[in-house]
Amino acid sequence: MSMCTICALKDGHPGVTLDDDGVCSLCKLDIAGDLVENFAYTKRVFEEFTRSGPNPHGEYDCLFMYSGGKDSTYMLDKFVNEYGKRVLSYTFDVPFESAHAADNIRLARERIPATFVLDSDDDSIKKMMREVFNRPAVKPGRYLDEKLPCVSCRSFFVIRAILYAFRHKIPYIALCADPQQILTMESDAREVIRGFYRTFGVRLTDDFFRGEIEQLLFADEADIPKIVFPFIAMRYAYDPDRIVAELKAKGLYASSPMETHCTLFPLLNYYAFKNWDCMFYKLNAASQRRAVHRDENYDRSTFSIAFPPGADLPGIEDRMKRVVMEIAQSRGDSVEHERELIGIMRELEAPEEAARFVAHEFLGMRDVAAELDITL
User: Fold this and answer.
1) Which of 119, 173, 198, 298 has the most CB atoms around it within 10 Å of its CB?
2) Can you tell me the distance from the alpha carbon of 228 to that of 311, in angstroms, rounded to the nearest whole number?
3) HEC per residue, the chain
4) Cα–Cα distance list, 55 to 52, 59, 61, 128, 300 (Å)
5) What is the CA radius of gyration of the chain?
6) 47 φ/ψ sector (left φ>0, alpha ψ -120 to 50, else beta)
């Protein structure tokens, strides 16, 4: 299969095409207009949020979506201790949450003086993920289709947060996507809801949210919470290694980013390989290659997971696909699988302990799938 000569995206990647010179549509910035428009909107909302005073309609200035990952922990600390915002820290208890992320949440509750709220709906989110993983992929696919399970899960708990903020008259929702994610996420609350309806239809959407979200589509604009992306302000200075180092120095983070992945990370890779012949993080890796191509001295990472510049991405992707599909089909030797996965993660510069943690998660992929009634 042909691949882009710049970023190594394969011909046939959802929403991506190659020209006669072997350069993909993303490297040619064919979607630049949409990205710039989204970026401009998120920047305006962030600036509005920073200028806003105390919320006159309630005791909280913003609902802060807190996952226990490095980005949300870093920004929660800043919102409360530097920006002086009255913060409701909202955590949706995703049943696929890493134990390490849960540990970080406990650390934050002990050290950050915010109001912490835990929300949950295991049955609905599991039903939704079962629907996504088991439905056939629609070819040739649209941009981000290889991430559909992850995008759907995120949209689910973002909508739960929108509903919570709407009920409690909280005007802003802080969502700590990294600079790479910001460019590919919907920033308007109503559009998040409309997108969910488009993906799952009226019947399933009303079932998941018990018919409650329809009122948001017809509410007054002033009553709809606005989504704020805090990292929009530091997009050129985003450095995941520095963020982790600062958090660990404050006693707010006790793991590596690899260890705070949700437990569905192996299944997300399986979904991407099975349907789109790519690893889950291929767009992220391609974006980094694209940035380096434009500036050879580019040494910053604008992504939560950094990819070493010298990494053999096509080779890593092929090796990971072989292991993931063998595990899914109960083939091959588990000791060899573990050795290969640890080797891949170490090549991606994950620490030894984190590499072993991720490998163990992949080896347990079939058990997680069985628990959710996902067919492999």
Assistant:
1) 173
2) 34
3) CCECCCCCCECCCCCCCECCCCCECCCCCCCHHHHHHHHHHHHHHHHHHHHCCCCCCCCCCEEEECCCCHHHHHHHHHHHHCCCCCEEEEEECCCCCCHHHHHHHHHHHHHCCCEEEEECCHHHHHHHHHHHHHCCCCCCCCCCHHHHHHHHHHHHHHHHHHHHHHHCCCCEEECCCCHHHHCCCCCCHHHHHHHHHHHHHHHHHHHHHCCCCHHHHCCCHHHCCEEECHHHHHCCCCCHHHHHHHHHHCCCCCCCHHHHCCCCHHHHHHHHHHHHCCCCCHHHHHHHHHHHHHCCCCCCCCCCCCCCCCCCHHHHHHHHHHHHHHHHCCCCCHHHHHHHHHHHHHHCCCCHHHHHHHHHHHHCHHHHHHHHCCCC
4) 8, 7, 5, 34, 36
5) 20
6) alpha
Q: Return the structure tokens found at 104.
A: 């970080």
Instruction: For residue 231, give every residue at least 6 positions away whose Cβ sits within 8 Å of its Cβ, in sequence order, or none.
Output: 71, 75, 176, 177, 178, 179, 182, 238
Q: What is the pLDDT of residues 142-160, one digit of tens each?
A: 988 999 999 999 999 999 9
In sequence order, what are the beta bridge partners of 173?
63, 227
* 315's tokens: 């080779």
The number of CA neighbours under 13 Å toward the Cβ of 184 is 20
Q: For residue 356, give both structure tokens.
A: 């072993």
- Tens digit of each residue's pLDDT (9 = 90 or more) over 304-329: 566 777 788 889 999 999 999 999 99
